[in-house]
Amino acid sequence: MKTTPRAQRNKGFSLIELLIAIFFLAIALLAFLVLSSYSNRGTMDAYAEIMALSLAREPIEIARTLGFKWLQKFKDKSPFKERFGTIKEKDFKYPEDAHLFNRTVKISDPPIKIKLNGKDVAAALCITVEVKMREGWARQSKDKVVLHALIWDSP
Questions:
Q1: Could you tell me if 98 and 123 are in contact, meaning their C-beta atoms sit under 8 angstroms apart?
Q2: Is the pLDDT of residue 147 over 70?
Q3: With contact defined as beta carbons under 8 Å apart, do 129 and 60 qualify?
Q4: Cα–Cα distances in Å, from 87 out to 71, 97, 141?
Q5: Whose CA is closest to 133, among 55, 76, 65?
Q6: Which residue has the higher pLDDT, 44 or 87?
Q7: How many Cα atoms are found within 13 Å in the side-chain-facing hemisphere of 55?
Q8: Using CA atoms, how far apart are residues 124 and 24, in angstroms rounded to an integer?
Q9: What is the pLDDT of residues 79-113, one digit of tens each?
Q10: Are 111 and 153 in contact (CB under 8 A)?
Q11: Could you give the CA distance from residue 113 to residue 125 in angstroms, rounded to a whole number?
């Protein structure tokens, strides 16, 4: 009977070596999946924050365009609060995901008066916009976006 040297007989991997290699590969794959999940969640949170900031800036920019006198004169009779306080799903001027947010617009009443030496030198309306994500839609963040702006009476 001819015997072969031991080095030639052990050319493959043992079962233990294969199981250890599979274990380490499974750990690496699990870590990659967890990292991918956190990355995806962070991306969606950033997208939601950008969308909320955009929705909060819109009524402030429109109020600045309309100006102090128009807002003061027509504040109660205008569709400003109704139009910019709600985001309708049928409104095609917004991105598709805009209906996932609730927006509240408040205008100070009466205007803020700035006095100097006992005289009114300026007046301003404070507009406050609060945007929150609606409940029940993959809501990761419980925060809200609140922006304030002063609309000054021109001298």
A1: no
A2: yes
A3: yes
A4: 21, 10, 20
A5: 55
A6: 44
A7: 32
A8: 65
A9: 555 555 555 555 557 777 888 888 888 888 778 88
A10: yes
A11: 9
Instruction: Find where tokens 């807002």 sit.
Output: 71
Please say whether the beta carbons of 138 and 144 come within 8 A. no
CA angle (86 as vertex; 67, 111 as ends), nearest 5: 35
CA–CA gap between residue 129 and residue 127 (Å, rounded): 7
**Which 3 state secondary structure label does DSSP give 77?**
coil
> Letter for the amino acid at 107?
I
Non-local CB neighbours of 153 within 8 Å, separated by 6+ positions:
68, 69, 72, 111, 122, 123, 124
Angle at 102 between CA 101 and CA 104, to 5 degrees: 140
Comparing CA positions, the residue from 55, 25, 32, 73 lying closest to residue 131 is 55
Q: Which pTM was predicted? A: 0.67
